[in-house]
Every structure is written in structure tokens, then in C-alpha cells.
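Q:
My hope is that you can spare some time for a protein that puzzles me. I hope you can help me see how the letters and the C-alpha cells relate. Thank you; the sequence and its C-alpha cells follow:
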Amino acid sequence: MLKAIDSIHGDGSLPGVPVKTSRAKSFYGQYSFSGSRSHQIALTDIPGSHKELTLAHEIGHYLDHQGLPGPGLTSRTGGFKPLENVLDAIGKSDSIAMLKKAKVRNLHYYLKKEEEFARAYAQYVATKSEDPVLLEQLQQLQADASDYRYIQWTNEDFVPIMKSMDDMFKELGWIREG
């Protein structure tokens, strides 16, 4: 999965973050930090956890916190126009409009800017890399028969978000061409 990310973009000179397995049953994955310091990404083996896509999601949180363009959860604080453009494209998507109307437990959580960004980042990695495991996990989420299907975007709905993410990574000098 890390090869999929590496095939799409670099990360400048960000510090590494350990990835560990957790026995927790209350989450699929979790990025932990304090202040501007990253601690770890934890992943579980809960059935249906779409582990690879979850890792991409948690790396999205890490990038948001550490690299866009510097430490500080910038999806919450703003101040980096290319990221604000990504969040704007997310906010204008049909999936977010439908999610706001859906019967989804903890809706407020799914509508947090940092959660929207991390989900978009995971879908971006799956789509741009064309990694078969990531794409299969994404398609399973998109095909969910419940209102949770709106958590990820349809391929068509995702196009403007993907374009804005491409622009953001180009602005950072991280995009890999070809």
C-alpha cells in the first residue's frame, strides 16, 4: 500500500511515523499525536476493516497534521489555499450533501473537515494508484446499501476533488508525473 502512495506523490522531508497493530475493537485505524508531534498510526484486524484503505485514511490524517504545508491540522485551521480548495470541492460534492441528509450514526464525526479530508485522501490514493486491493476496498464501501455509502464518493462525484488534490500536491512540489 505504501508503494501505491509513493507512486503518486512524495512528502518533502516529513518525519516518519510508526504503524502498529492494535487489539482495540472500537476503531479500524487511529492516528495519534500531541501538539505538533506525531506518535503513531494504529490499525486493527476487525473483520471488514478494509485495512489497506484504512491505512491510507490514517496517512491522510498524518499528512493533514504534519505536511500541508506544516504541522498543525490545517484542515481545521485553514491558511493553506490549496487545501482550502480541496475542502471546498469536498463540501460541494453530492456525496456530502446526501450524507448530511442520511441516517448515519455519529454524522457530526463524518462531517468533520479532517475526516472528510482523510477519506478523500484514501480515495485519491486508491483511484490515482489503481492499486487493485485499494480499489476493491473502495468499491465495497461505495456499494454499501445503507446510507454509509455516502461516506465515500462515487467515481464521477470525486473528479473535482481529485483535481483539487492534484493541484495541492503540485503546489507542495510532491506530485509524481507519469
Notes: Residues 155-172 form the longest helix (18 residues).
